[in-house]
Each structure stands twice: as structure tokens, then as C-alpha cells.
Specification:
Layout: H1 2-10, H2 36-48, H3 51-64
């Protein structure tokens, strides 16, 4: 994850983070998966969600992780 975050902020990661106006990016959520394949599928599914659903998911996950 640290490598990907560094790539995104260097402008060598995803196309979305290529414009300097979208950097620096911050990691606001992370999950563990058993395999890289599972992680990639989950990321792709999340990216397909509408913005409102993404925001709702992140808010509910954040509430679950509060100690």
C-alpha cells in the first residue's frame, strides 16, 4: 500500500491521480484480503459504485473502527 500511495503522489500511479491538481492523495481506508486477486476485485467493485454509496460505505466503516 505504501508503494502505491507513493506512486500516486509521484504521478506515476493511476490516470486519475496524474494531474497535479489531484495530488497529494491520502489513504482514508484500507482492508486486508487473503489474496491480491480478491483485493483487486474488491477495489474494482468499489470504484464502480456511485459517489454517494462510496461515501456511505466509508462513513459506516469508519464508525465500526472507532474504539
Amino acid at each position: 500500500m505504501a508503494r502505491r500511495l507513493k506512486e500516486h503522489n509521484a504521478g506515476t500511479g493511476a490516470k486519475y491521480t496524474h494531474p497535479k491538481s489531484r495530488r497529494p492523495v491520502q489513504m482514508i481506508h484500507a482492508e486486508r484480503f487473503a489474496t491480491r486477486s480478491e483485493a483487486t476485485k474488491a477495489e474494482a467493485a468499489f470504484k464502480r459504485l456511485p459517489r454517494k454509496q462510496k461515501e456511505h460505505y466509508l462513513l459506516t466503516q469508519q464508525a465500526k473502527n472507532v474504539l
